[in-house]
Specification:
single chain, about 350 residues, alpha/beta, Rossmann fold, two-stranded parallel ribbon, 11 helices, about 45% helix, hydrolase activity, acting on ester bonds, SGNH_hydro_sf, signal, SGNH_plant_lipase-like, GDSL_lipolytic_enzyme
């Protein structure tokens, strides 16, 4: 009976996800393009030509269209793709450095996010990935190319009517603070405040380049990641999640302050923390069997052609030691869009 109830609940939630996506597709029409900045949550392949921070090898991409590893830290699509898909913009979002980028790709948006990057300048240099300052420069280069294709006025309209996503703070807290030197310079609350200052400054720079509609992601739930859990199926780490919540609350306040400063813009906080906690704490209710380890990698990153990858990623909340599976992302994205789309009207 319990098994049947869980199955029925799973079906109802799947229908709800589809319902929310239909709402998103109908509500779009005003988003001309999509752009993503920040870290691996949104990275669609910017690291493929780097010496570090790469994941353009199997089993990554195992469930992506064409079953190819594209540099996404997932078994399939990530939030950049899923939000673009839900809003009817495009099915997948290419990275700006994709070698065979087409004119149509430029007109509807590209990804600048780089796995391992952070809003703290120290983070990207530590991990050897594309810093957010460089992502901003790439965006400036992109605008120049867009003007060449569409003309200056149309290019301005595309940028102003696009949805700009940003995800930062995950690597900054995990790498530069918890495992790095920043804790010698800042208390944790002070570091979170500094991250928010850097983040709002970055958003101001995007605003100055013509962007007007922003979806700013919270951090993930650090304490629920396989890397933070003990063996034996323990619960999420409350201490790690409290740290994430502290930063997310400050970020939300910083975005609200920036919104007051720029009433012609729409700056919306995308809370991915809460739905991920709900899923990881109650996996069976969402149709998952495992929330304690990654489908590949277990409690580490996926190794090339790993023979230990699970046969069905849809039964796992996490793909590797920190990144959710596509199925998890789909549930999160549905939750976020259902709660925030009206804010852009």
């Amino acid at each position: 009976m319990a098994s049947a109830s869980s199955f029925i609940l799973f079906i109802l939630q799947a229908c709800a996800c589809l319902f929310f996506y239909n709402i998103g597709a109908q509500a779009n029409k005003t988003f001309s393009a999509i752009f993503s900045f920040g870290d691996s949550i949104l990275d669609t392949g910017m690291n493929n030509n780097l010496l570090s921070g790469r994941c353009n090898y199997p089993p990554y991409g195992r469930d992506f269209p064409g079953k190819v590893a594209t540099g996404r830290f997932c078994n399939g699509k990530n939030p950049t793709d899923l939000i673009a898909e839900a809003l009817g913009i495009k099915d997948t979002v290419p990275a700006y450095l994709k070698p065979d980028l087409q004119s149509d790709d430029l007109l509807t948006g590209v990804g600048f996010a780089s796995g391992g990057s952070g809003i703290d300048p120290l983070t990207s240099s530590t991990l050897g990935v594309v810093a957010m300052s460089q992502q901003l420069q790439y965006f400036k280069d992109y605008i120049g190319k867009l003007k060449g294709i569409a003309g200056e006025e149309k290019a301005k309209a595309i940028i102003a009517n696009s949805l700009v996503l940003m995800s930062a703070g995950n690597n900054d807290i995990g790498v530069s603070y918890n495992a790095g030197m920043r804790k010698l310079e800042y208390t944790f609350p002070a570091y979170c405040a500094q991250l928010v200052t850097w983040s709002t400054t970055f958003l101001e720079q995007l605003y100055a380049l013509g962007a007007r509609r922003f979806g700013v992601l919270s951090t993930v739930a650090f304490g629920c990641e396989p890397s933070a859990r003990l063996t034996g199926g323990s619960a999420c780490s409350m201490a790690a999640n409290l740290g994430a919540q502290m930063y997310n609350n400050l970020l939300k306040a910083g975005i609200a302050s920036l919104q007051s400063k720029h009433p012609d813009a729409k700056l919306v906080f995308f809370d991915i923390f809460t739905p991920l906690v709900n899923i990881a704490s109650n996996p069976q209710q969402f149709g998952f069997q495992n929330a304690n380890s990654g489908c590949c990698g277990g409690t580490s990153i996926c190794l090339p052609f790993s023979p230990f990858t699970c046969p069905d990623a849809s039964t796992y909340v996490f793909w590797d030691f920190v990144h959710p599976t596509e199925k998890t992302y789909r549930i999160i994205v549905s939750d976020v869009l259902n709660k925030t789309l009206s804010s852009f009207s």
